[in-house]
Task: inverse folding
């Protein structure tokens, strides 16, 4: 049997639905912050990453998937998204657009030949955003706040934002000198790679996986002590904006990031939920003002962030976050003979076009098997087709929860299902636990929200269609609770 490659994942079933949901929240958040979706190639010229990320980094020196293509070109599967975005910004002359800064986001697979372990894959998916063309500290704060808000919109609570500054070139040089002076007496105690790094790129010693945790590394000089006045002032401004935006953070002088292109602000967001394990950084980013010119583009100030999708999904699971994952169907259509099957094919199509989630039988099960299958699919209603009913233009409909059965005219089936599935007491999953927040969820409603959106961020429903004043789709999937919006007759979106 051919198996998947080490460090790769098949994502399917419920997990795939979670991924789609997370992606939808990311899209909604990016839209609010006015970031435009962007796709760049999965493979690029090897040189892009060597020059961009840095020869001395682990990513480039040990982890890239490199190959020579049939035309003899040196190609690398992208290990991250930033270098490709900057390449595209230069190649497509986006810097010439008066509409600066350019704000883009992406979501795609990246490849790193790492030792696979929990939270560390060889094929990984990152979403991320980049702001190109502004050095305003407000953009640093915006990127951090966007990252935090995505996690909050998803319902993650146990996160911690660590920020630091590497300073401008002058500060970085002073820091580099301090590191060389500090590490030189310990050279023989460092791993072989770090001995080379000491000469080439001493900053990378700080994120060495072999020497990690050693006292030598712990006691090394901190970037923040080597910031010149301008860099200090800039960092203070970033912190002020974060305070204004009410984004909680901690200054952590140990954050240096593992890629060479950073200067000034760097940050990482950790999952603090129990059971996460050591690879608990959900995402990281920072400012990279030198990268564009290093890649032969104009001097362009940039900042960005990227986050591992797999780690985010894991955090959602560990925090037990309720998500609006649809794992049931509105109607299962049962049949026995060929004539009924043809009608089932017609009816399935009709009802799907009318907006219902409809399933039928595809594997030749008998009636008993079809009832079981309807249960497996969590069908809310079952239509039992039989030739006699069809001749009378009727159908038996069974509520699969109460087991009550109705015989109704096929002419009114759509109205019947609409009424049964969408009206009456709301089961939408509003949950006082995190509702009644009185927050403007951005969906046009100024009522207290009962929709299940978690407090303190904007609603992601993006839907004008909901009839309820609660402001959005249900986010919890809980059965049996009542809606708190106090409105009668609104449509529930929970698919209960
Ligand atoms: P990075 O820290 O290398 O930064 O990666 C960002 C995030 O991707 C990590 O925090 C982690 O969640 C996830 N990640 C990285 N490697 C793996 C892996 N092997 N398996 C699973 N997840 C992983 C960057 O990539 C920068 N491009 C971020 C950035 C954007 N800086 C500025 N703009």
Result:
């Amino acid at each position: 049997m051919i198996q998947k490659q080490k460090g790769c994942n098949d994502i399917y079933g419920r997990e795939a639905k979670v991924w789609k949901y997370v992606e939808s929240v990311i899209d909604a958040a990016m839209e609010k912050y006015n970031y435009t979706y962007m796709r760049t190639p999965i493979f690029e010229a090897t040189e892009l990453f060597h020059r961009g990320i840095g020869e001395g980094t682990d990513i480039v020196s040990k982890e890239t998937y490199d190959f020579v293509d049939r035309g003899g070109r040196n190609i690398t599967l992208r290990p991250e998204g930033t270098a490709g975005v900057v390449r595209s910004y230069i190649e497509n002359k986006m810097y010439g657009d008066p509409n600066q800064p350019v704000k883009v986001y992406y979501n795609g697979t990246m490849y790193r030949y790492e030792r696979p372990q929990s939270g560390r894959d060889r094929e990984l998916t990152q979403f991320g955003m980049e702001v190109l063309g502004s050095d305003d500290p407000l953009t640093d704060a915006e990127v951090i706040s966007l990252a935090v808000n995505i996690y909050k919109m998803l319902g993650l609570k146990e996160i911690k934002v660590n920020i630091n500054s590497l300073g401008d070139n002058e500060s970085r040089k002073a820091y580099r000198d301090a590191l060389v002076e500090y590490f030189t007496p310990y050279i023989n105690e460092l791993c072989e790679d770090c001995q080379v790094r000491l000469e080439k790129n001493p900053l990378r010693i700080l994120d060495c996986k072999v020497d990690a945790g050693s006292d030598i590394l712990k006691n090394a000089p901190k970037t923040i002590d080597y910031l010149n006045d301008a860099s200090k002032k800039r960092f203070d401004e970033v912190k002020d904006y974060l305070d204004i935006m009410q984004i909680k953070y901690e200054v952590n002088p140990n954050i240096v990031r593992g890629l060479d292109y950073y200067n000034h602000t760097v940050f990482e967001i950790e999952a603090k939920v129990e059971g996460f394990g050591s690879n608990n950084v959900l995402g990281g980013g920072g400012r990279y003002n030198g990268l564009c010119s290093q890649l032969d583009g104009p001097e362009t100030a940039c900042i960005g962030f990227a986050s591992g999708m797999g780690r985010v999904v894991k955090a959602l699971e560990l925090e037990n976050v309720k998500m609006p994952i649809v794992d049931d169907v509105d109607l299962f259509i049962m049949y026995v003979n060929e004539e009924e099957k043809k009608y089932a094919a017609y009816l399935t199509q009709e009802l799907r076009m009318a907006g219902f989630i409809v399933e039928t039988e595809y594997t030749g099960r008998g009636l008993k098997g079809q009832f079981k299958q309807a249960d497996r699919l969590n069908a809310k209603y079952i239509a039992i087709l039989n030739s006699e009913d069809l001749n009378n233009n009727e159908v038996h409909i069974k509520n699969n929860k109460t087991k009550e059965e109705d015989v109704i005219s096929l002419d009114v089936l759509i109205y019947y299902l609409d009424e049964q599935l969408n009206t009456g007491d709301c089961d939408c999953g509003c949950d006082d636990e995190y509702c009644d927040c009185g927050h403007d969820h951005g969906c046009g409603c100024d009522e207290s929200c009962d929709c299940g959106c978690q407090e303190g961020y904007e609603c992601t429903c993006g839907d004008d269609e909901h009839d309820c004043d609660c402001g959005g789709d249900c986010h919890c999937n809980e059965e049996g609770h009542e809606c708190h919006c106090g409105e009668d007759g609104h449509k529930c979106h929970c698919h209960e």
About this structure: The chain has 15 helices and 16 strands. The first strand starts at residue 36 and ends at 37. Residues 388 and 394 are 8 Å apart (CA to CA).
